[in-house]
Amino acid sequence: MASASPSPAGVRRIELRGHIIDSGIFNRVLGILTDDELTAYVIEEFESGQTKTEASYARLRIEASDPAHLDEVLEKLQRETGAVVLEEGDVATEPAPGDGILPDDFYATTNYATEVRLDGVWAAVERPEMDCAIVLDDGGAMTVAPSDVKAGDCVVVGHQGVKVNLPQRSRRKAVFEFMASAVSSEKPRHALLGELARELLAVRASGKRVLLVGGPAIIHTGAGPYLAELIRDGYVSALYAGNALAVHDIESQFFGTSLGVNLEDAFPAEEGHVHHLRSVNRIRAAGGIRAAIESGMLRAGVMYEAYTKEIPVVLCGSIRDDGPLPDVITDVIECQRAMRHYVPEIGMALMVCTLLHSVAVGNLLPATCKTVCVDINPASVTKLTDRGSHQTLGIVMDASSFLRELTLAIAAAEGR
User: Fold this and answer.
1) Residue 97 structural domain
2) Planar angle of CA 72, 75, 80, nearest 5 degrees
3) Mean predicted confidence (pLDDT) in 147-159
4) Number of domains into which the chain is organized
5) Whole-angstrom Cα distance, residue 206 to residue 331?
6) Beta pairing partners, 352
7) Which of 183, 223, 238, 321 is the most exposed place for a label (fewest CB within 10 A)?
8) Among 400, 345, 412, 362, which Cα is nearest to 197's?
9) What is the pLDDT of residues 43-93, one digit of tens each?
10) Measured distance CA(197)–CA(69) in Å, rounded
């Protein structure tokens, strides 16, 4: 079984193991090779599991007249299908030529679990994250952001000795598999949120954090009290947001408005357009959010609960911020580092109505982190998957409905 063969100047072999048929991995490999007119392949060995629990195996010989192009195809197969290139030695490395500068042929990571071959032994790469580099140190390997690479660091180059482990399809159709195939506002929300609540409780019971990445729409839609309750009761245990969510949450406590609109009757308040500016000014005068809480100035709300519970809070600034609040990190690279610091503790991420922030955080998360993206705009919901966070479950809902129904679903799952 083979495709048309070019004049071979390079020949390599790959193998696939696991549930490669029902997960679609085998078809994906054949699709990549068939679409590439400069390569040819032969399926040298194929063993199909005889039951739904038995693994399958395939070995393919791949040929190309251009060795450089063959390397590109092999790297694509590794990244997108987890194929293992046979007859490989250890990883190749080059020293970083300067701080924040990588060798030209550096290996660009995925967010899947990855291994590198060191002295003939496969070793796990710590902290999987997409669009980064792999640095070897003290006999181990770690994913490092390009901005954090130091001159002389031992950086993995090429694809030799690198293995990507794609997650195998679960034998049970879990909520993240069942609903992630398409995004629609017509999904059965009651069942979906019930299953999501059970997944959240399982993550919480495992000792991992549940992260909420939130936009100001949470406050604008009146959902602030639901989020505050989830934080107070320990269901949300980390919060990433921008200046806006914090400002409008504090505005709602000081003035009962969000962006100048009364949260009780949805009518604009007189002089309401300056309420958020006055809120920023008061917090700056107090010396920050924690100081405002300790002085008794701020007594409720999302930020009050998050600081009182002492959960990780990272507020990242942008060029359009008013103020910003003193607690906001305005250096984006420092903000990435602050968010990245807590990533190993996170087991689930709820991204609610904040497209750019969700993409930024999604880029930091490993594929093993259960990720939920909620937005009223279907295009926003699909954006994370388009950017490589394929583990994302999309839900088309407004912030208020989602947080209210999630709160009820958690109560039901706990039998309350």
Assistant:
1) 88-169
2) 125
3) 95
4) 3
5) 33
6) 214, 374
7) 321
8) 412
9) 999 998 888 788 899 999 999 988 889 988 998 998 888 888 886 789 999
10) 47
